[in-house]
Design brief:
71% of the residues lie in helices and 0% in strands. The relative contact order is 0.09.
Length: 177
Amino acid sequence: MHVLSEEAWEDEGYEERIRELRPRLVAYLFGLTANHAVAEDLAQEATVILWDKRSEYDPVGNFSAWAFRIAFFCACNYRRKQARRTRFELPSDGTLELIGDSAAWVKDPDQEREALLRCLAKMSEEDRELLLRRYTDGESLEALSKRANTNRNALAQRMFRIKRSLLVCIHKQLPDR
């Protein structure tokens, strides 16, 4: 591999390539995380890594593919860090969407979050794990149904019942309901 000096990279427009690719990296990372703020943070992290590793890039190679691979690993590291945290510390956007239709009656988002956490804690481990796999990890119903050895329709009905009971529980937890 041909390694260029830092000055040569700047001459080659490496920084400009990163800057031009950044919006696509953000869009890609948003697709992986479903959270715009996280996608922006991960794109920034990937940009820093790209800059730090500029001497490792082979100019003959595909810069976009290399950059997207680095972004992918940033997203994987983010997921691993999230998985190490207590699963109920910060609910994902997908989990919060379960109660999104009722957002108009929530006066205090902290109360909503606390109600969600209390209700998740009351669920059976199996139901909670199913919800988290679907809405936090983004597993498809097909993958979940294979894992549970059941058909997709039966699992969809079960998910509906779990989400409905979660919403009812949250309504009961919040004041003035």
